[in-house]
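User: I'm preparing a small set of examples for a lab meeting where we compare how different chains pack in three dimensions. I only have the primary sequence for this one, and I'd like the structure in token form so I can line it up with the others. Please keep the answer compact; I'll paste it straight into my notes.
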Amino acid sequence: MCFVIIIEHIFCQDRTGLFSSMTSLRQRKGSKGKDPGPSGFSWWTILCVMTGSTVGISLGLLCCIYVATLHENDLWFSNIKEVEREISFRTECGLYYSYYKQMLKAPSIQQGLYELIHDNTTESKRTINILQRMNIYQEVFLSILYRILPIQTYLEPIYFYIYTVFALQTVYVIALFITSWLLSDSWLAGALSGVWYILNRVDTTRVEFTISLRENWSIPFFALQVAAITCYLRPQLKPIHQRVVLWLVFVSTFCFCLTWQFNQFVLLVQALIIFTLDCLDFLTTEQVVSLYLMQVLSLLLVWLLQFCNSMILGSLVLSFIVSALFIKHFQVSKILQLKSDEHIFKFIKAKFGFGATRDFDASLYLCEEAFGLLPLDTFERLAGTVLLYPYLCTLSVLFILLLLVATFKMRPDVAYNLLHTVFFGLLAFSTMRMKYLWTGHMCPFAAFGVCGKEVWSLYLRVLHCNTKTMMRLIRYSVPIVILAFLYYKFWPRLMEEISELREFYDPDTVELMEWIRLKTPKRAVFAGSMQLLAGIKLCTGRVLTNHPHYEDQALRERTRQVYQIYARQSAEEVHKVLCSVGADYIVLEDSICYERRHSRGCRLRDLLDLANGHIMDGPGENEPDLILATHPRFCEAIKTDMTPYSTLFTRVFKNKTFHVYKLKKLKKKNKAENGP
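Assistant: Understood. Below is the structure token output for the 676-residue chain.
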């Protein structure tokens, strides 16, 4: 119903242009007769709607099939063993997928939910509520859906999961298609937007190799929300249509918030956009309040579903909206005394140079490439698909016009998308991982510049040839020429890409998982790196000491303690720490102990040395207050099998990549545990 209204509004609206005075807008609202209503569709209009809708859906399905094919060809997913399929869910992806698997293995849906709410395997010696801590309702929903649908006989659970994520790419492309269609009044813009999204896959999505990441679930809903907001802000939208489209804004915002823990920071940027538009008098009071209300209601509903998660209630976006309603921001944040997301603020403070930091959590983020600045080669790739040039032209022209807002009145939907691409562009420049919120929106925005009347009319006025005939010629010929060029240049490459066959190959990890599954007790507790432990939980179901979902202060502190296995600490101190978290086994990785991927100062062992006040390994400068450690690096020294390491640890597994040690329980400790 909502999409019908959006498509209908594309053709049943008063085309006011990019700018018009408020007087002329009011005059057009009162005019009669010339603009056909919904019942006044011509056959040509109906044909355009049907053609555009077909093209949009086809491009969405093409994108879905494309990424699914890439995933299959890269791993030979259909031919590898189940354990290899599960290992392919790297780092936190494996953790999230493990809860889907856990729900399917439960005797009943009720029992599965109970085990998630009272989970004692994700963090040893603790019982936590997974539904409160993590955004995994999508895994719960899919597991329930798989149980009740008659598909078990011909579709494996893992395929049902990955195909659902790939299907969301269809939603994503259709949302981008609709956004550009709404902005430009041409479905050719939608076609150009969809093609650009697919061709720039490296910079617009990473879904084919990080399937379970929360952003791959949430960003399609965010794109859908942007499309709905674009429609909501269109001039001349009927009140009944406004209510229906506003409902779509709420549903898409809710789904976005429910599926990603970073929702509050994205919505904060969006709230700033709405605030800016309000200050520039682009939006009515009703529109501002309604959009804020949709954000607040979505967050509060997620807050309830996540068992009153304080991180949501104390989010900056809620504080900002409250402050916009003249309630001071600090009254909210101080009362709640939030610490779950304090590592993010430490990271932001250190990233923008507000003092150096030795904080382990902040440094862990700073040293990851995904949280660095946007690489310059991104622009080379975007320029190669001819996306960057029209994007920059549209952005520069409209931004200059925005500065002249006192003279001209820009359409609210155009102004929103302009500020959206500016704000999220700045976010992408500062943090590479956030570029996927920006690059996807670049496609409809650039397509609007190519196919919209407004930008072209400015150029034609400068050339003194702004006629209807010339406008139509350019609006239809330029996108067709670009599409033809893209087809000629990239179609052979796409065919070559999807015909390239590879195979998953990680025998050391497979060997480790099989050994754990066959040779260790089912309730054994494993300590190690966050990334590896997520895979251990998925493949073997063993209990973990820590995991990659980092939005909890107690977990972050525990992770720092467990990671002392890669620091310069005594065997006794490491053994004591591991026993305190209930570990039975530790898994040491040579790729971490002898890491070369990062430069000095960003290797994990360096971050630990700095946090512990020790001088780092290798040549280079050290801060003057750092001291030389009195103990060798644990992950190296334990391999010597000398006292006291042999007294406290026994090596039980080894291959070229991993070393597994079992903790020996000291007699004194055993007596204390057994009691009198």
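A couple of notes for your slides: The longest strand covers residues 649-654. The beta strands are 525-527, 543-544, 585-589, 649-654, 658-663.

User: Perfect, thanks.
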